[in-house]
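Team,

Forwarding the record for the chain on the shared tracking sheet. I've put the sequence and predicted structure together so nobody has to dig through attachments.
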Amino acid sequence: MSADPTKFKVARTIRLKSIGLCIARLPQTERLFVGGSDFKVYEINLTAENPEPIEFQGEGHQSYVTGAAMVGQQLVTSGYDGRLIWWDVEQRVPCRNVIAHERWIRKVVASPDGRRIATVADDMLCKVWNADTGDLLLTLVDHKPMTPHHFPSMLYAVAFSTDGLFLATGDRVGHVVIWEVASGKKLSEVEAPVMYTWDPKQRRHSIGGIRSVAFSRDGRRVAAGGIGTIGNIDHLDGPSRVEIFDLQVGQRVQEISDTTYKGLVEQIAFPVSESWGIFGGGDNGGFISFYDTETGKPLHQSKMPMHVHAFVLNDAEDTLYAAGHNQLAVAEFKAEANEEQKLDPAAATTGN
């Protein structure tokens, strides 16, 4: 069996004690780790008879937990308190606590080899860290601290390329930068200004911004996700939006604007299949959408039971675990076994 976006369906939901803002998974398991708006980190083991969130103990975050990434057998989380915390997932206690940024950390991600982690925060800095020691390796500076309308900007998004050689960062005004990880050198930049909305009347502030970035599997393209021009800022009344750029020519090659499922695109993923991408997010509600990477056309879209703040795939990339407003959702999109596989289940795994 293989992944089939058209088969996507929520199989179960689990109640969370707060808004789930980030999620990570221990590889080769169904052990999930969720951080959220109650300043806590929880483990949810889906193999348990009645999975319930189990709270991590010890001195943790003092504000929202906004990022989570696995590095080996340890979990690293980030928060609005400006801290990075390394956790022993077996004991569920912290083993390292680092003051990483002066302002809110928006996200932490791990390199594919697990040797580095990268963080972005509202000090408009991207920092690269040694995942084993917690030592700071690089500070990447380019994103401007103020918007064109003289309000504080925010740096929401960061992602490693599949080979771990490059980083992409994206901010509130739609500015995306590509960095070389080894040297910290800025390689290129692209712009997605439609994702920045200035409201001069109701609230007199800017809203929107790039909330997610992701490299294609071959590293030749980068996708930036957010929201299009917002009409009603109180309800995120704007189309969900993804722009895809060809890094070799530095030009936008696709614009995906969706008025059926509105709101922020909080996360983007490109599974190994490479023929489609997954976008997740929402407004007051939530969605998961699958798009053809060549045409930009939707393959399948699904309303979720809550706004999706983050999701993670299983190893086979045919099950998705999403964290959001007071819920964890487990959804499957597996192709049906053919007749030969139904008669001989081993054929599905051995290829005989």
